[in-house]
Amino acid sequence: DIERDEQIYNSYEKLSSQLPILDDWYPLTLQNYQSFWIHPSQVPSCMAVQSHFNPRPSDILIVTNPKSGTTWLRALSYATLHRHSFSISDHPLLTTTPEQCVPFLEGLFNYHTIPNISVLPSPTIFSTHLAFSLLPQSLDCRIVFLCRDPKDTFVSLWHLVQRLRISSSTEDKSIVELDFNKAFQLFSQGISPRGPFWDHVLGYWKESKRRPEKVLFLKYEEMMEDPVSHLRKLAEFMGCPFSMEEERDGVVEDIVKLCSFDNLRELEVNKDNKGSVESRRLPPSSFFRKGKVGDWVNYLSMEMVEKLDAITKEKLHGFGLSF
Ligand code: A3P
């Protein structure tokens, strides 16, 4: 019902237009919607997801904070779920970006129509940055949450925004530099895309403790340390465990290799010269920078490290979560 959808979206746009806009992370402007910072173009779609996203129990929702490994988890979950349909040498991930393989939920709900999820193959994997408290209350599908040390998440975010600033800069050169200290202050205050970082993580952490069969909580650092055993865990959780035969044939290792940073980054499709169909503001290569654990040592001062660690301790340690 096109007219009904149009009305729904108009009301969301009206609501979101009343929220104040913060420009400090320009061009990633932010609005505070129900305690989380969201880009204004995505606020109406978040509202639509909240009220109208109705996945099937078989579907899988992968959730991340921006810059926490979304691309990697998209690739791994997609390759694992569809491993019987494709061979590694002729795999969609060799010619399609991970973002195209696993749709972004906020993107699907961004066209002034409520998408009909039931026509999609079952199970379908969706990706989102929505905080747990912003998901529909009745959500029944499995959720995989991947988080990353806030120090590395912040450094990765700063680089991305810096890159976006340079590529979107026109005559006004004064906006080009995203002051590192200022960005750090904002991030630690909880003002960052989809932040507060710690509240975002905690929502899923608590839910993974409450309903471990429905919410799998993963850490980027642990996955980097031992991707093979984490992929086994992921496959099991998604309801498609690797068989003895697959284990013997090295399928797990093959998928890990296919989805590795070094492999994906070198593919033509993930470089910028390939004319991506996605928003030009986020070219595929902006999702592949260094792919390392602990790159923060090259950017954060001692005080900054202490500050972020102290916030993590204060907000998360009591719940048994640390980085
Ligand atoms: P760095 O900026 O620290 O390199 P997201 O996908 O959520 O935007 O996260 C991007 C971060 O994940 C970037 O971190 C990027 O390099 C890293 N990344 C992308 N693909 C990866 C992969 N296949 N394996 C590990 N890290 C990856």
From TrEMBL:
Alphabetical keyword list: Transferase
SUPFAM superfamilies reported in the protein's UniProt record: P-loop containing nucleoside triphosphate hydrolases
Record-level Gene Ontology MF annotations: sulfotransferase activity
Coiled coil, from the record: none
Residues in Sulfotransferase domain copies: 57-320
InterPro entries hit by this protein: P-loop_NTPase (IPR027417), Sulfotransferase_dom (IPR000863)
Top-level class of the enzyme under EC nomenclature: transferase
EC assignment: 2.8.2.-
Assigned protein family: Belongs to the sulfotransferase 1 family.
Protein known as: Sulfotransferase
Native species: Dioscorea cayennensis subsp. rotundata
Gene name of the encoded protein: LOC120274053
